[in-house]
Structures are given as structure tokens and as C-alpha cells.
Design goal:
The complex is a heterodimer.
Chain A (H helix, E strand, L loop, with lengths): L2 H12 L3 H22 L4 H27 L2 H6 L3 H4 L5 H32 L5 H26 L3 H19 L1 H4 L3 H12 L11 H24 L8
Helix pairs in contact in A: 1-6, 2-3, 2-6, 3-6, 3-7, 3-8, 6-7, 6-11, 7-8, 7-10, 7-11, 10-11
Chain B lengths: L4 H4 L6 E10 L2 E11 L2 E6 L6 H8 L7 E6 L2 E2 L10 E4 L11 H11 L5 H11 L15 H13 L5 E5 L7 H16 L3 E6 L2 H7 L2 E6 L2 E6 L1 H7 L5 E7 L2 H9 L4 E7 L2 E6 L2 H14 L4 E6 L4 H13 L1
Parallel strand pairs in B: 3-8, 3-9, 6-7, 7-8
Antiparallel strand pairs in B: 1-2, 1-4, 4-5, 9-10, 11-13, 11-14, 12-13
Helix pairs in contact in B: 3-4, 3-5, 4-5
The chains are: A mainly alpha, B alpha/beta.
Keywords (chain B): ATP-binding, Nucleotide-binding, Transport
Family (chain B): Belongs to the ABC transporter superfamily.
Pfam families (chain B): ABC_tran (PF00005)
Amino acid sequence: MNAVVADITYRAMLGRKRIWLLVLLPVALIGMAALLRLIGGWDEHTAVILMRTFSISTMLPLLGLIAGTGVIGPEIEDGTIMHLLAKPISRPVIVLTKFMVAASLVAAFGAVSTFVAGYIMVRDESGVAYGFALGSLAGGVAYAAVFLLLGVLTRHAVTIGIIYALVWEGLVGGYVPGARTLSIQQWATSIADQISSSAFFSTDVKLSFAVPALIVVTIGSVLWAGQRLRSLSLTGEE
Amino acid sequence: MTMTSAQTATRHSVVELTQVSRWYGNVVAVNDVTMTIGPGVTGLLGPNGAGKSTLLHMMAGFLAPSGGTATLNGQRIWRNHEIYRLIGLVPEKEAVYGFLTGWQFVLSAARLHGLPSPEEAAAQALDLVDMKKPKDRRIETYSKGMRQRVKVAAALVHKPQVLLLDEPFNGMDPRQRLHLMELIRELGAAGRTILFSSHILEEVERVAQQIEVLVAGRHAASGDYREIRRRMTDRPHLFRVRSSDDRRLAAALIADPSSSAVSMTEQGIEVQATDFRRFTWLLPRLARDIDVHLWQVSPTDEDLESVFAYLISRSST
């Protein structure tokens, strides 16, 4: 970790308009939960559906995408990354620091808002709020790592990230059971299921697969991004 | 502007390129370039698209050579972050965080270098580029020249032995330009190795002792620019002459083999001298002998622009 790199990255992510992208979905989630509570349309089943479809399937990949690509992609695009790279700091350390920033943002905005929304609806009933919060945290961290890697690998990280989240996880995962095994959403849900005792849960991926998969994908993505940044070519205006 | 003793006490550093090439697919950006950049100020000159930035980025470790080697004091540059203890880089791109103030930007550079007194180093560097006053404004509010200066301050904050600047005078007003030129000259005189790229000939002429000319990715010439000019003996020198009797002087000059062509213009006569030494020796004597007064003798192609144009034409043939 490098404190200066982290400081600059936090300022870039939180001090500009980008923060609204991070705030928007969590606010919508909490707003929906509060509304359901107010109109009395809440129960454990509704809470699980909302958490699963909105929090895990929609908000989490989008927050991961915004944070993961946002901590490094724009800097590579506009060349400001040179300020960091032209210093005697190992590039894997720069990547690790940026990953920590992205992961902390997904945790703060994704996992915390998921917990708050769950708690508003069902309090601590069946451990739904705790389960989804932890699942969001683990899934969000993995998303941040994967999308950070994409941000280093390609200038089309956002497009590829959206295609992955919508097409692979949303569409293919919905119809092809085998594809769910390779889905961060499913791994996150598997963790939520393990913690919650709710009867409304159903997961396709076992925890014994989900946890190692999350660890391998997260660590592997960060290591790969670090190596890729070591070989990153930047050219001038010519 | 004065250099501190710490800034003047420096170990000499040498950047060496050996048969360096860089290509993008089928496009060759830099072709088999060998050059050594030592202490003092060196100007990397060439037209837009000549490969200057590509070469500079290879020296700065931001681009891998497709062939050949780039080293700093014998150490490989590519994928070696330790070399940035010795190198300061001023990229042409607006590589600055607009949301930081000038002070925060330069201070962050000092901290990233792990300097023992980052605040002191940042203050010194900002002072050096005359950016003390606006240092607390956000960079996004700066003019292009101010951004350029704050980039220079960030590159100088750790007092690097080698300073690489890509088109550093772009966007600067004349006063800022003179200020930076003076600073570069001082750093060069203090023994630092400085390389700056430019396509503006006047800038290179005024700052650099040594010139490396890059044309179409090739190393077209190297040395003092006047020296380069003198070495081009195969090229006619063009002189504009005004006298009391242009017609008579023209007739006398064309009779001598030192001039290949003489033409009458509204301003006088233009002479193409194929034998520079003989022509400059002959002209005053000839004028005296035929009783013609010389009002003006001016070489029209002694500037770097002419040298440059000649090198381009020679490289493309």
C-alpha cells in the first residue's frame, strides 16, 4: 500500500462527479427498502428477492465496475498515471493500492447499503441482512479486482464489464446452469445463503467452490493487473 | 534564479540508446537509432511525427524498444522503476490531476519519491519555476503554461540527474519560455543530463549545446548545429547581396566556379555558393577589384530551419 497513491485515488473517486454514480444505486436500494417498509409490503420473501435481484445482480456489478475501472482506467486514458508510474514505486504496489481503494468503496457503498436496506425491511430476521451484506462484500471485492484488471488490460473496460455483467451473468447465467458456476453473483449469493437461515434462498453453487473461487479470482486479477502495469506502454502525442 | 549547492553537486549520468527501433505493426516509428546523451543540454529535434516522443518515452521507460537497448548508467531502463530515482520526466501530455492544487501535486511527487523533507523540496521546486504564488489554486484553473511549469516542478522535486522534457515550451508565454530556458541552461551547466524534444528550431538553438536530429524515425544528424551545418559541404549556401552595382557584381561572381547560380532580385542578388570558403574569401576582393561597394551580405540559410529542411530532403532521397 502507498498512502500517496491511495490519497490521490480517493480524491479522484470521491471529489468529483463520479461519486454520484457510486451513491445513486445504494440510495435507490435503501429508498426502495424504506418505501416497502412504509407501505407494509415487506416480508422475508420480498426482502430476499429485492436483495438478490437489485443488490447482488444489479448494484454490485455496477458498483464494482465504477470503482474497479474508475480507480485506474481514466488515468491510463488521459496519461495522468505517468505521475505515479515515473516514481520509484513498484507497479504491483500501485495496483494493490488502487485495488484496496476500489474494494473499500464497493464495501462502503455496496455492502453497507445492502445491510441497511435488509435491516430496514426485516431487521435481523433469519440473518438475511447480515448474509447479503457479507455476500455483497465478498462479491464486490472480487468485482473490483476483475474490473480493475480490465481497466489495465483494455481501454474498453467499461463496455466489456457491462457485457460480462449483463450478458454472461444476467442472460447466459439465467438460462445455462453451468454458466452460473462461473459467476461472481452466484458466489456472492452462496455466501449470503450460508449465513442466512431463510427458506427463500436457493443457490446453484456450493460454498466449498464459491469461497476458493472468489479468493482465486480476486488475488489472480490483482497479481495479473500488477504484472500488466509493469509492461504498460505509454506514448506521447505523436 | 539560483541553484542551490545540493542541486549543483551531481554525479554525471549517461543515457545510451544502442540500435534502438520501435515499430507499431508495420509502421516503423524509430529505426535503428544509436545515441548517447551525456551531461549538458541536448535538443532532440525533428518535425512532428519524426519519432521524438517515441524515443523519449523509451528513454523514460514508458515504452519497450522493439529492438536494441536503452540504458541509464548501464542499467536497463524498461521495467526498472528504480531508475526514477535518477530521472525526472516532463511529458507533453497534460498529465496532471486537475483536482489537485499545484502545491498538492508537487508535494505528492516529493512524497512518492520518499524524500526526507517533502514540504521543503516541494516549496523549492515551485519556487524554481516561479509558481509559488498560484500554488494553492487547483491545477484545472491554471493556464497551459502554468500547468507546464508545475509539471517541471514535479519532475525536479527530487533533483534528478537526468531530466527528460517532451516539448516543454508548448503553451508558454514568451516570459515563461525565457524563464524555463534559463532554468534548463542552468541545470545543464550544473552537470545534469538534460534532453528536451522540440520541433521549434529557435528553442533548440537557444538552449541546447548538442543537437540530435530525428527525421522519419532515423537519426539524421548529431552534434553542434553549426557543426552539422558546416559538415554539409555538398549543399550550396545561399547568400543575399546588396551592392552599389548588383549587375556588375553578379557578372563577376558567376565567372568564378565558387558560385553555381546568381539571380537578380528586387532586393539585390542571390548567390548560390558551392564552395563556401572560396566564396567568402573571394567576394570582398572581387568587389574591391571591380570597384563595387558592398552594402549587405547575408547568408539566408544559416538558421536551423534550413539545416533541418536539408536533412529531411537528404533523408528521404
